[in-house]
Amino acid sequence: MARQIPSAAQLARALKAFGGVVGAGAVFADEPDRASYSDHFAPDEARHAPAGAVAPGSAEEVRAIVRLANDHRVPLWPISRGKNFGYGGPAPVLRGSIVLDLSRLKAIEVDEENGTVLLEPGVGFFDLYDHLRARNIPLWLSVPGNSWGSVAGNALDRGVGYTSYGDHAARICGMEVVLPDGDLVRTGMGAMARSPNWQLYKPGFGPSWDTLFCQSNFGIVTKLGMWLMPEPESMLGFDFEFDRPDDLGWVVDTLAALRREGIIQQSPSIGNWLRAAAVMTTRDQWTDKPGTLAESVIDAIRKRFNIGWWSVQTRFYGPLEMTEATARVVQKAFAGKPVLSTKPARWVRGDAAEGSPMTGVPVTFPLANANWHGGRGGHIGYSPVLPAKGDLAMAQFRRTYARYAEFGMDYHASFSMGERSLTNVNQILYNKDDPAMMGRVDGMFRALVADAAAERYGEYRTHIEYMDLVADTYDFNDHALRRLNERVKDALDPNGVIAPGKSGIWPAAWREGR
Amino acid sequence: MAGRFRWAVAVAILVPAAAHAETPRAQPDGKALFSQKCGMCHRKGGMGTVLLARRIDPAQAELEKRTDLAPDYVVAAVRSGIGNMPRVPRGELGDADLDVIACYLSIKPAGPKAR
Q1: What is the pTM of this model?
Q2: Interchain CB contact of B11 with A (< 8 Å)
Q3: B17 vs A138: CA distance, rounded Å
Q4: What is the ipTM for the molecules in this complex?
Q5: What is the CATH classification number for the domain harbouring A185?
């Protein structure tokens, strides 16, 4: 693939013009700057290396930069905080793009009474958490396993968390967006100036645009409305352990029914033994043998952490009368089934802080799993969506497990239960300092995508390197959705300045190289 | 996104409860800046603390407890990355703020009363 990227002179002129808007101190184009905006998990950072970065301090500056990008015909790659590790971090799809770093935009407006927040893209989960705690505002976050990143950016990329507000994109209510020509629009009720309903009523009047700015390159979100969970009176739940790989099937069927009926309102994630081991330990503590881990090693890991082959945590939120009733219903659903162990979880208002993402506390320690192999580690996410059916989950597990073995990698996966679907989240852990291993990752990833596509399963999200590969699998009527996306793209962004290649959507100017 | 894993195990061992929230962020002093920009990974239970505990004396795995940090070393680690720590761009943490943090981490009172 050889796409024409802007010349060095063209980029230099654009960066100088950006400096006129934001000040020279907010334009970053030295070699160390370019490296700092690259994907540090990537096998080859150069493939997606940016030409530099610019960090505006207001939506007005974003608008001015976008207009200049059109004048200079240079592509921008907007990031909120750039911590989307496993999916590309801050790096652009198109090498030579200029990163538009929104991390300086950090305004937070909480509406405590209505349980909403309006925030700018630079606000991280820790920022929002500290903001709420410092003011004793009884609202809870839903956080992802790596909470270093942006609340808005994570929701826009359809990230997920652990509470009943864990479908983050579904909690978006109203946006402010800079369009590719520099126009500024507010969606939903925000389309009416000074509306008190912007963060309260999602659809607005006429077409709803919020979802069009998720995982897309149609605009730059400068403000995002979200609903937050009022602190519940209680959180109850169970940690279930299961002994055999084959238990996955009936566990999925049991949980799927509870999810469909709304008994369980968060997304329980059924994960294997490596989730704990990869965060708590390194591989060399268990074995010095390459290739997929032996049964004896799996047994040792399970014994050390006292866990099953699979583990899942369910949680229920609300008044104690309701969570206790829910606990009884869930217990009944698992009664008589081969559960290895059941551990109840219980937090009631007034108890000491529970301290985990299950109560919306942001964390970063799960990122330690990148150190599983020692050396400079990383991972890539492979996350196909399938129906929430036990037999299909088992088939997906067996197929994928065989691929891990074929490519000599350690199986690291979970099945996250949506309301009607199941997402098979895999983090393929690797060691950047092991060239032989790194040589296997690309082939394995492509095989996994092809396997899923053969079953007609698509990924919900993917790494910048594979956006075209995954977009290709969405193939109804000879890729009619891509044609639609690119018609919209060309109409809104005729010069193709916003995030060329995001989600496989290429503006006309760059489409040639696909 | 780091994926999901079994919180019960992790919480029991690492206990990260709100460790980062202890400093108000109004003052742009070293401690406040460290808390705001680095605390999520480099205070109790953070990714950096977990990983450093594998490489150095666990009692000094939290950077604020280190007694051997020179400002230049802190700046180099932040800008170049180190091990699994990614490079932190200047858009997220400007040079002036980084210098304040580097000084804060290097001028630690010796002995147990630190922090």
Answers
A1: 0.94
A2: yes
A3: 17
A4: 0.91
A5: 3.30.465.10
